Input
Amino acid sequence: MKPMSKTRTSQSHDSADLRQSLKAAGLQVTAQRLAVYKAVCTSPHALADEVCQVVREELGVISRQAVYDALNVMSECGIIRRIQPAGSAARYEHRVDNHHHLACRSCGSLIDIDCAVGKAPCLVAEDDHGYLIDEAEVTYWGYCPECQKSLADNK
Ligand SMILES: [Zn+2]
Ligand SMILES: [Zn+2]
Output
């Protein structure tokens, strides 16, 4: 049997590491930012409101605005990534390398998928029109296995 390959998503979510990443990004480490960062790490592709809920469970009171601000500032310095599949609100994830997503049209589930071919950016534009390309945002749309099953059952 082939050993399971370790994916890059299995980085440590240790508070010390998270603190370190915030610092490295030039951000002041606050309990709120740390909690928001941790929430994004433990629930990848979460909506801002879901992050809010997770953070509230940990910190108790925190305003929505504080969570939104933390998400914004961390996305801006690139330690988390904001993704916005068509028709969905913004979602946040801690995996910031070039990767893509599989999205289910029916239930809205979203999972990570590695680059299609070769190194990032894996899509080579036919004509780059002189742009210096460093990222390709790809969402593969379809139906997840669960939804395929229930669609078939409902026939
Ligand atoms: Zn689905
Ligand atoms: Zn992702």
User: Anything to note?
Assistant: Residues 44-45, 93, 95, 99, 101, 112 surround zinc ion (ligand 2) (CB under 6 Å). The first strand starts at residue 46 and ends at 47. Residues 70 and 76 are 10 Å apart (CA to CA).
